[in-house]
Design a protein that fits this description.
- This protein is of the alpha/beta class.
- The protein is 40% helix and 20% strand.
- The strands form 3 sheets. It has a 6-stranded mixed sheet, sandwiched between helices. Strands 2-1-5-6 form a 4-stranded mixed sheet. The chain has a two-stranded parallel ribbon with strand order 3-4.
Amino acid sequence: MGEPMLEFNQLPTAPDGRVLYLEGHGGDTSNAAIAAARQGARVGYITAIGQDAPGDSLMALWAREGVDTATVTRTDRALTGVYFVTHDAHGHHFLHYRKDSPAALYTPTDLPRQAIAGARLFFASGISQGISASAADAVFAAIALARGAGAKVAYDTNYRPRLWPPARAAAVMHAAIAQADYVFPGMEDVVVLTGLTDPDAILDFYLRLGPDVVLLKMGEDGAYLGLPDRRIRVPAHPVAAVDATGAGDALCGAFLARTLAGDAPEAAARYAVVAAALKCTGYGAVAPIPRAAEVHAATRAA
C-alpha cells in the first residue's frame, strides 16, 4: 500500500550538452510490489491514482507485471504524482511533485477490507504514511485489519524529509513498526530518526520495538540481518552500478517474496541483496529489477 508515481530519471548528458530523462515508474511500495511479483509472488496493490496519462501508464505497468489492480482506485479529483531523479558524485537525488495526489487523499474508509483480510502479508512504508495524515491513518487501519486476520506485516522506513519533520516521522513509523513482523530500516533513515549510528545499536532499537526480523539496508555495505537470537552480515553483491534508485525497494520485495515462498530469513536476505545489486545495473526504479532466474544465475556465478 502506498503512492505510485511517474518517474523521469536523468541519463548521461548527451553529446550536444542536453540533459535527457528516461520516462519510467516509481513509488517505493509499487517498486517493491513489482520486485516481489518478478520473484514469483502473487501481489496486489492498494492505492489511488488519477484519471490521467500517468495513471494510465501505471495501470498498464501493473498489468504487464501481473500485479492485481482490483484494489486501485482512480479519481478525477487530483493528479497522479510525478518525480525526477538526478545524479551526481554524491549519488541520486529526488524532486517530487505530489502535493494533494490521489494517494495523499486516501482515508481509512477507502480501504479494501476484504482484500486485506485475505492477504498473507501486508506491506507499507514511511512514505505511505508521510504523504498525509489521512494516509497515515489508513495505513494504521490496514495494519489492524491485516493483523486481525492473521496476516504478517512488513514495513520499510524510507524517510523523506520533505514530507514531514523527523520527530513526527519517527513517532508514526515506530508506532507502525511496533505492530510489524518484518522491518527494513535504511541506514541513512535511522540516523535521522533515532540518532543512532552503530548498526548493532540500530538492530537493538528496532528489535526492541517488537518485530521478529529486522533487515538493516546499508547500501554499498550490503545488509545486516537482526533476529532475536543472532545477527548476520550480508555483504553487497559486486556489480557495475549506474543508478541505485529503488534498490532498497527491490530488496524489500525480493526478501518478502522469498519469505512467502518458505525461505528462512538468512537465505531470503542473501537473495534480496543480490536482487538489489542487480537492480542498480540499469537506469530507473523499475525496468532493471531482476527476475528470479537472473538472481539465481548471479548467485551461482558469485
